[in-house]
Amino acid sequence: MKTNHIILLIITFCTAFSGSVLASKPGIPPEAVAILYNTNVPDSKVLAEYYAAQRNIPKANLIGLALSEKPKISRQEYQTTLEKPLRELFTKRNWWTLQKNEEGLTIASRNSIQVLVTTFGVPYGINPLPKPKADPNKPAPKPQKNNPLTGINSASVDSELSVLGIQGIPIHQPLGNKYFKKDTSFSQTQNPFLMLVGRIDANNLAQCKRMIDDAIEVEKNGLWGMCYLDLARKGGGYTMGDTWITDIEKKNWQLGIPTTIDKNKDTYLTNYPMRDAAIYFGWYITNRNGPLLNPNFKFKKGAVAVHLHSFSASNLRNPTTRWVGPIINAGAAATVGNVYEPYLGGTHHFNILHDRLTQGYTLIESAYMAIPILSWQNVVIGDPLYQPFKQLEKKSSPVKEDRFYLAVKTGFDAWN
Asked: What residues pair up with 306 in beta bridges, in sequence order?
C-alpha cells in the first residue's frame, strides 16, 4: 500500500475517534490597527500601503511621520519626532480619550487602536542617555542592589510606543505589563492605555512583503511541520530559559507536533538536517549559528523562529549578524528579539509565547502575553495579525506535503 494511502487511512481513523480540537480565536479587527511609516523612506510608505491592502486596514489608519533614517535615535529625538506627534494625532483623530488618574498621570481611558504596526524605515532603538558628568563636590549615588533594571533608559521604540497612552512615566525603569500571562483576546481586556506594537521590518522591502504574504497564505490551512528546540545548558541563574524550552517540548507531546530537542551546550550543527522547520526556539550564542550558516537552509513557509540573546535584534536589518535578521533572511515569517540588554526575566517567555500561538492567538497578542515588562528592549517582528495555528483543527485540509503532520496530530489527539 502506498504511503499516501496509509496516511489518509490514519487521518480517517483518528478523526473518527478524536474529540479534541483547538478553539479558534477572534483575532484583531482591521479597524483597530494603525500603521506607522517614515515619510523620509519611500519604501516605508509602500510597505504600509501594501500591508493595509492585504489586511483590509482602513487607509485613514495610516500614519506618516518625518523620522530619522537611522535605526537608533536619541531619547530627545524619540520624544519630539515620535511620541509628541503621535499623541497629538491620536487626539486629533479622536482615536482615544485622555483623563487624569488617581496618581496624577494622564492616561488613555478609551482607545480605538489596539495594535500599532511600525514598518521598515521607522527607527527601532532609543539610545541610552549620556551619563551626566560627576560633580566632584557631591558624593556619587549608590547603586540600587538587587534591581539591575533601575537606571536603564535605553529602549526599543516599539516597547516605548506600547505605553504611549500613559503620559509622565519615568524613563529610567520599565513598567509592569498588565497583559502578561493573560489567556484572553486583547479586545476583551480593559487596558486602553496599552497598545500592542509589532514591526514588519527586515533588510529590504521584498523580505517585508514576503513575511506578510507567507503569513496570510499559511493562515488558510495552518502551520504544519517540525519543531526544533535547542537548550543552552548554562545552569546557575539561567535555568529559566532551559525550563521554557523543555515546557514547549512537553506541550508539543500534547499537541501532536513532532519535536526534536538538542540538549547539548552547543547549538545545532551547521549541516544538521533541519527538515520542515516550522517552529524553532533556541539559545544562547551571540551570532547566527548552526543551520543558519548553511546557505541552503530555509525555514518552512510561515515559520515562527526565535533565538534568545540579549542583543538578538540590535541590528535587525542585517541578514548576517545577530539573530533576528538572519532568521528572517532564512525564510521565517515571525520572530521576537531584543534591541538592548533585557536580562533573562525581562525577555519574552518562550513557553508562554508558544502556548498562546498554538491556541490560535495572533502573533502580537501571544508576544505581549509572554513579556512581563514594557517600556523596555523587546520587539516583535512579522505580521502582527498572523495566526499560524488558527486552522489546526480536524476540519482543516493542509496541502499535500503537510498531510503527514496532520496524520501525526490526529493520531496524538486520538490517544491522549
From this structure: 281
